[in-house]
Design brief:
Function: Required for the formation of a threonylcarbamoyl group on adenosine at position 37 (t(6)A37) in tRNAs that read codons beginning with adenine.
Radius of gyration: 19 Å
Number of strands: 15
Pfam families: Sua5_C (PF03481), Sua5_yciO_yrdC (PF01300)
Bound molecules: threonylcarbamoyladenylate, magnesium ion
CATH topology of the largest domain: DHBP synthase
Shape: globular
GO molecular function, one term: L-threonylcarbamoyladenylate synthase
Protein name: Threonylcarbamoyl-AMP synthase
Subcellular location: Cytoplasm
Largest sheet: 11 strands, mixed
Strand order of the largest sheet: 1-8-2-3-7-4-6-5-9-10-11
Helix content: 25-40%
CATH architecture of the largest domain: Alpha-Beta Complex
Low-confidence stretches: 214-218
Number of helices: 9
Number of domains: 2
C-alpha cells in the first residue's frame, strides 16, 4: 500500500477525514506523540490498527474525542471525572472510565473490558481532524509495537510506511511523552505517568494518587516491562560514558554526545526524549550501547524515567 503524506491544511484534513470515513488508517499529530487513528466504531478499522502495529489484541486503545460532551456519549462521568476533565482537557490526560452500554464502540477498542480509556487532545490539527471526521478515533501511538514512540511524521513513516493509508504531517510534538493515564475505578490510580505531572493531578484532587502499575499483569500495555526499545542496549543513571557507549546528558554533562536538555529542564527533556533515543541509536551503530545521565524523578521526570526504564529493560 502507498502511504500518502498529507499537509496540515484544509486539503490534507479533507483527505484524512475521507480515508477515516472509508475505514482507513491515518497517523496524526497530538501534543504528546503521533497517534495511529481509525474509526473507533468500526471493527475492521480497529483490527487494522492492531495489525499495522503488530500489537497484541488484549491491549486496549485510547479513544480520542473533541470535547467532554462527546466523551459523555461513550463513558460515564462521576464528580471526580468531571472535575479532572474540566481541569485538564483538552490536554495530555487519559481517563479510564466505565463504558456506556450504548457507546457503540468496537469491542476491540476496549479489549472486551467494561471500561474505556478516553482523551481530548489539545493539538489543533488533532482537534480539526476530529471535527472533520465527526466521530471517535481509536489511536495508539503510531509506532510498531514495543518500539520507540513517534514525535515527528518521519518517525511514523520509518515504522509504518506501506501499512497505513496516510500520515498527516504536523511537525514535531510539543510534549513528547504520552498522556498520563488515570484509572477511576476506586481511588484515583496512576496507570501510566505522562504529559500531565502527577503532582498537578494530586493538587486538583486534593489527595495522593494510588499507583496501579504492575508489569506482571498490565492494565495498561505501556506498563509492559520492555517497551520504547531502540536497537542498542541502554544503561541508566550513567555519570560518564564507558568504552563503546553514546552518552546522553541531562543538564551539564561534559563529554555527552547528545543531551535531553542542556539546562536540565524537564519539559524540554520530555519533548526531546524519543527523538534523542532515535539519534543515540543511530550514533551507537550496530555494536554500540547508549548510556543516559540521571533524570530527577519529579514532574515530567517521572514519565521520562518510566519510558527509559522500559527502554532499558530486557527484551523479549
Ligand atoms: O498520548 C497518548 O496517550 C497517545 C496519543 C496518540 O494519544 N496514545 C497512546 O496510546 O499512548 P497507546 O495505545 O500507545 O497507549 C494506550 C494505553 C495503553 O497502555 C493501554 O493499555 C491503556 O492505554 N488503556 C486503554 N484502555 C484501557 C482500559 N480500559 N483500562 C486500562 N488501560 C487502558
Ligand atoms: Mg505506545
Amino acid at each position: 500500500m502507498h502511504t500518502e503524506h498529507l499537509s496540515p491544511d484544509a486539503n490534507g484534513l479533507d483527505r484524512a477525514a475521507a480515508i477515516l470515513s472509508a475505514g482507513g488508517l491515518v497517523a496524526f499529530p497530538t501534543e504528546t506523540v503521533y497517534g495511529l487513528g481509525g474509526d473507533a466504531r468500526s471493527d475492521h478499522a480497529v483490527a487494522r490498527i492492531f495489525d499495522a502495529k503488530g500489537r497484541p489484541r488484549f491491549n486496549p486503545l485510547i479513544v480520542h474525542v473533541p470535547d467532554i460532551a462527546s466523551a459523555s456519549r461513550y463513558a460515564t462521568f462521576d464528580a471526580t471525572a468531571r472535575l479532572l476533565a474540566a481541569t485538564f482537557w483538552p490536554g495530555p490526560l487519559t481517563l479510564v472510565l466505565p463504558l456506556r452500554d450504548d457507546a457503540g464502540l468496537s469491542p476491540l477498542v476496549t479489549a472486551g473490558l467494561s471500561t474505556v480509556a478516553i482523551r481530548v487532545p489539545a493539538h489543533p490539527l488533532a482537534r480539526a481532524l476530529l471535527t472533520a471526521f465527526g466521530g471517535p478515533l481509536a489511536a495508539p501511538s503510531a509506532n510498531p509495537s514495543g518500539k520507540v514512540s513517534p514525535t515527528r511524521a518521519e518517525h511514523v513513516a520509518a515504522g509504518l510506511a506501506g501499512r497505513i493509508e496516510a500520515i498527516l504531517d504536523g511537525g514535531p510534538c510539543a510534549v513528547g511523552v504520552e498522556s498520563t493515564i488515570l484509572g477511576l475505578q476506586g481511588a484515583p490510580a496512576l496507570l501510566r505517568p505522562g504529559g500531565i505531572a502527577s503532582e498537578a493531578l494530586e493538587a486538583a484532587l486534593g489527595q495522593p494518587l494510588a499507583t496501579g502499575g504492575d508489569s506482571a499483569k498490565p492494565s495498561a500495555p505501556g506498563q509492559l516491562a520492555s517497551h520504547y526499545a531502540p536497537e542498542a542496549p541502554i544503561r541508566l543513571n550513567a555519570t560518564a560514558a564507558s568504552a563503546g557507549e553514546t552518552w546522553v546528558g541531562f543538564g551539564p554533562c561534559a563529554g555527552a554526545a547528545l543531551t535531553l536538555s542542556p539546562s536540565g529542564d524537564l519539559i524540554e527533556a520530555a519533548a526531546n526524549l524519543f527523538e534523542t533515543l532515535r539519534r543515540a541509536d543511530t550514533l551507537a551503530g550496530p555494536n554500540g550501547k547508549i548510556a543516559f545521565a540521571p533524570v530527577p524523578d519529579i514532574g515530567l521526570g517521572r514519565a521520562i524515567n518510566d519510558r527509559l526504564t522500559r527502554a532499558a529493560a530486557p527484551r523479549p
